[in-house]
Amino acid sequence: MHILSMEDNLDMFVRIFGKGGKYIKDAVIKAEQCLDGQVRLKKCGLYLMDNIDKGYMYNCYEKALETAETPFFRNNVRLMRMAFRYSDLETQQEDAQSEAYQPVRPYENITPELLYMTKFDSYYKNNPGYGIMIPVTGETEQYIPDKWYQFE
Questions:
Q1: CA 136 to CA 120: how far, in whole Å?
Q2: Minimal CA–CA distance to 114: which of 147, 86, 145, 73?
Q3: What is the C-alpha separation between 38 and 33, in angstroms, rounded?
């Protein structure tokens, strides 16, 4: 029996991003190097966003989107970036660090972009088309979507 390494599994996973996969692979490795058991699962998002080079990560997503050769691959890049962006925006909320765990967070002063992301939620909105979970309540019309939310 052959046991696959993380690298083996990552190589198989990034195929869903086409040629952009090499940049997604870099981002995943960077995140894995940053967060490796330092905190309990409940605090992982906070730790990661406080300690990772966000500029590097967003640059990886930019390069991945530029090089992904089909709508399928580009949309997968958008979803992967949305998961990272959600963590970035959600951990910036004033009460993100102090609140007890809640499955869906009703923030008082939430950013329009974070609220806009809820339209892609597949779990709470029962929209199976995206396969992403955005556990924030509310919606907004204030955010003008950029290339990261314009699915093909």
A1: 11
A2: 86
A3: 11
With contact defined as beta carbons under 8 Å apart, do 88 and 54 qualify?
A: yes
Residues in the chain: 152
Alpha-carbon distance of 58 to 24, in angstroms, equals 10
| Pick from 114, 104, 110, 111: nearest CA to 137 | 104
Q: What's the pLDDT tens digit per position in 122-139?
A: 887 767 777 888 888 777
Q: HSE-up of 99 (CA within 13 Å, CB side)?
A: 16
Tell me the C-alpha distance between 124 and 132, whole Å. 10
Q: What is the DSSP string of 31-57?
A: HHHH-SSSS-GGGHHHHHHHHS-HHHH
pTM of the model as a whole? 0.87
- Spatial distance between the Cα atoms of 138 and 37, rounded to a whole number of angstroms: 32
Dist CA 20 CA 58 (whole Å): 13
Single-letter residue type at 49: M
**Encoded amino acid at 67, one letter:** T
Q: Token pair for residue 83?
A: 């998961």
- Dump pLDDT digits (tens) for 83-123: 999 889 888 876 565 555 556 666 777 889 988 888 888 88
